[in-house]
Amino acid sequence: MTDLASLARLDGVAQAELCARKEVSPAELLDACMARIDALNPLLRAVVTVAREQPAPARPGPFSGVPFLVKDSTPWPGLRWSMGSRLFAANTAQQQTPYGRRLAESGLVCAGKSATAEFGLLFSTETLLEGVTHNPWNLSCSATGSSGGSAVAVAAGLVPLAHANDGGGSLRVPASACGLFGFKPSRGRTVPAGLGGSDFGDMTSDHCISRSVRDSALFLSITEDRSSGTPVGFVREPLSRPLRIATWTRTAMGMEPEPPVRRAYDEAVALLTGLGHTVELIAPPDFDSPALGEAFLLVAGAAVAGIVESVDQRRDLPVQRDELEPYSWALADAFLARGADALPRARATFAQAVHAYQQATRGYDVVLTPTLTTVPWHLGHLSPILGREELARRTARAIGYTPLHNIAGCPAMSVPLHFPENGLPIGTHFAAAPGADALLLGLAYQLEQARPWKDRWAPYSIPALF
């Protein structure tokens, strides 16, 4: 059972069950994971740091012995923590976060760090530090981002699940592009992962990208903050009641989906209707979309400016231009040029957009849209060496559905319901009111049963090649 393909086909829960029955040891699971990484990572470049030596046997827990990856935007003790940036290329994390402790206590074994866009800012995983991460469905295409490394590693069968985070779609968008399940928890649902301290960090939710819904649901039960509100616990069953679902296709920037995405969306509507749900087309929320897009960029720029200021205070030599990517500098410079009222104005714009979203979706259980307006783009389309305005324009064309749910603190997910014969996967996006994480997971189980995707493997994956 330790050959490359057999274990690669199993989700995390199934691998943990093998361990519990002593049919395989944690060491064998890790060795098999390392063999898969050695076989395919030189081609895909999903893993940027490999942790071959583990300090102790895996702890007993629900994921005992299961190897996973941590996105390199997030610290893990003893491993390099570069955040995709040349500025931190030699940085090693020392302390564990509360989030990381929960994962370690569950028995998960960190096999390494996955590639990320610099500071998680871009929707493509290609950096001047690490190079490009390739989509295993088409090597010329982007895995998108910023959690592209995690998505590729799971889609290729290197690990059954991988940590990721999402500040505007950075988890859900790569899940869509790689044919995986990507769930973003409600704001405040989980214990801290160490990314707070800025408006951008506060909008970011940590979770995982997985092949199965049950892996994602178990991961959430392990990491949730049980002191705030009503804990979700381990959601195990499909939804048992019909939902009232609001839907629209025009993005906040006025874009409509490309024909392949529209076909996937129409199929999803038909599937939901067949499952007994009521799907109602409504007008999208009405707010100042250009102002919202600019506010989002300003918040990202404030986060970069804060990083630069922090490093400048800790060392004699100020941060040099060649230590950050051109796009990161452009975001920081644009923020600093706006003056002291930039962040308060951005927050006011966010508040107006959230109010419009809440008004438009009041009375509905779930909101349905595509995850992206376009099919995944080719590498270089969102390169960090392009100018800020061009990158903003290209991003706005593709990313119009997901950021609002970070701003509003909603749980949201991309579900892999569409796999064209000649093309990349296309995800379908669902969101619910803050705190309704269990409702979304129940719907995800139902969709997984109705349209199974676990045996859909990319051409450049362990099960497809071995």
What would your notes on this structure say?
GO terms for molecular function: catalytic activity. Belongs to the amidase family. With 466 residues, this protein is of the alpha+beta class. It has a single domain, classed as Alpha-Beta Complex (Amidase signature (AS) enzymes). It contains 16 helices and 15 strands. Strand 6 and strand 7 form a beta hairpin. The model has no long low-confidence stretch (mean pLDDT 95).
Q: What does the largest sheet look like?
A: 8 strands, mixed
The number of E-state strands comes to 15
> Between the first and last Cα atoms, what is the distance in angstroms?
14 Å
Fraction of residues in helix: 25-40%
**Spatial order of the strands forming the largest sheet:** 8-10-9-14-15-13-11-12
Give me the secondary-structure category.
alpha+beta
Counting H and I runs of at least 4 residues, what is the number of helices? 16
Beta fraction? 5-15%
Low-confidence stretches: none
Radius of gyration using CA atoms only? 21 Å
Give the domain tally. Answer: 1
Outline type: globular
Highest CATH level, the class? Alpha Beta
- By CATH's scheme, which homologous superfamily applies? Amidase signature (AS) domain
Overall CATH architecture: Alpha-Beta Complex
How would you state the average pLDDT, rounded? 95
Q: Could you say what the CATH topology is called?
A: Amidase signature (AS) enzymes
